[in-house]
Amino acid sequence: MATGRLQEIIIGSKERTKEIQKLEKQKLIRKIGPRLYTTVLEEVPEKIVGRNWYRVVSELYPDAMLSHRSALERRPTPGGHLYLTYTYTDNIELPGLHLHFLKGPVAQEPDDAPFFGNLKASGLARAYLENLQTKRGKGEESKTLTRAELEEKIEAFLRVKGEEALNQVRDQARAIAPGLGMEKEWTTLNQLITDLLGTGVSKNLVSPVARARMFGEPLDTDRIELFSSLYEDLVSREYPDFPDRNTSIRSYQNFAFFESYFSNYIEGTEFTVEEARQIIATSMPLPARDEDSHDMLGTYQIVSNRKEMMLQPKDADDLLKLLRERHAVLLSARTSKKPGEFKDRNNRAGNTEFVDWQLVTGTLKKGFEMYQLLQHPFAKAAYMMFMISEVHPFLDGNGRIARVMMNVELGAKGLSKIIIPTVYRDDYMGTLKKLTKQRNGDAYIRMLQRAWEFSSMVYDDSLEAMEQSLIAANAFLEPKDGYLKIVIR
């Protein structure tokens, strides 16, 4: 065997005895534990095992399953403790790794899923039940998370995935509890989830994060102050009405095409108009640009649907629901970006840190209150777009979903939607940043009003004629090459 193809970790077996002896004799590998060898000759065994723990367990104990706290943490504790359900109970010491085997029911398909190689992991419902079992040890030597830690895990799942997803996990836990002999744990889990989803005050929750949910979800108070300053700027003004002239189906779809085109272009997903037309006309991605093409298709699918673009959020929970649903369509091809799910880690752009992922739902719900107070559709549109952009609730697609939500407010009232053309990108991005940093909404509002007036002049049953009107307005130019012209028709 060529040494260049050897893994860092090699597991001994009867079939490989001669091969391993030969490699040892050649000093190409060394033994670091029972049936455990490595090709790394200098580094301490603890570090080698630490970064290969999943391979070690998978090959040494092929029938084991990550369970209890390890099923939720998906890694050893900082001290190297790992908890697994197995065919017997035992404790095994390896370099830097303490394996705690707990005798219990084997993995149940499809709920308990493959983790790596032969190694499986308890499904979420089972892991929640396991972590409510009676514990003996303390700290890392406990097979279960503390009650507060478990509450925070479940609250985080609720925050990111939503109530429907958590209720599905609850239903699954109810179904599997009898077979696992965990009826008592099910009763406790059911009450815990009920408390998290309830509107009343519960004395059962112990985690500060979980308890905060009872009194109104934790939020970014600094962003709420920012939204308040924008609200004050918006509510103090009068606005014109620019009616939507794209009344025919064809004209509406033509506008939606360029709405999608520019909304993606501004985010760096650049196509020629002909390429974009091909994607929309065929509903097929361009070769070698599958994800970018689907971004274009996803945006168009939303904004070309007049019925969808008239669905305004009825309340704060409906806002969260609409955001998730539209984002799932928008980024359907980018599974790594978790379409339809709020972010589970923080994101940033340049020096701007967006709202902490744990504060997204609370901040959106509180911000929605000021949206409800606004009356004119343009004021509501400008506020909604900035709020979504500033919170940045998703891992990707935030700008596009913010502009979708903005145009819903206008389209629902029979007013022209807004396009942000390429030539206007710097004005758009610059005033967003100015509002964030200086808390003065004047430049942002004036920028968006100009884009709205321009967009109200973009209408035609002919896609080619609409393109020509955009060319006449310098819409396709880079910002350095021209300025946005409003062409009166």
Count of individual helical segments: 20
Please state the oligomeric state of the protein chains shown: single chain
The tally of strands reads 11
Provide the CATH topology of the largest domain: Fic-like fold
Number of self-contained structural domains: 3
Classified by CATH, the class of the largest domain is Mainly Alpha
Derived from helix and strand composition plus strand pairing, the structural class reads alpha+beta
* pLDDT averaged residue by residue: 92
CATH superfamily of the largest domain: Fido-like domain
Cα-to-Cα separation, first versus last residue: 76 Å
Q: Poorly predicted ranges (pLDDT <50, ≥5 residues)?
A: none
Shape: elongated
The helix content is 40-55%
Beta-strand proportion: 5-15%
